[in-house]
Design a protein that fits this description.
2 domains, Pemi-like Protein 1, Chain: D
């Protein structure tokens, strides 16, 4: 299913009107959230089906997408502790 739509002004932003046949096909309502992704020289819209129950869920998702995990956090913590110990070392020029 395809349709041509025009970009319209919405306040200070721009948007599109999603045709009713698409809304019906995906069971979308005005309260639903959509995820927009860039793909194949265009965009893809998907209905967001899970609600985030924890404010850190988005951060966890980002960490997974960018290759960070619990061991990465330990490495970062060790690095910070090392920096702190270096800052107290008088032989190292302080910033």
């Amino acid at each position: 299913m395809t349709a041509n739509v025009n970009i319209i002004r919405v306040g200070n932003s721009q948007g599109i009107i999603i045709p009713a046949k698409f809304l019906k096909k995906l069971s979308l309502t005005e309260k639903d959230s959509l995820e927009i992704s860039e793909c194949d020289g265009g965009f893809s819209l998907k209905k967001v089906t899970t609600k985030q129950t924890n404010p850190f869920d988005a951060l966890d998702k980002w960490n997974l997408e960018h290759g960070y995990n619990d061991s990465s956090l330990e490495e970062i913590s060790d690095y910070i502790e090392n920096l702190r110990s270096c800052r107290s070392n008088k032989e190292i020029v302080q910033w």
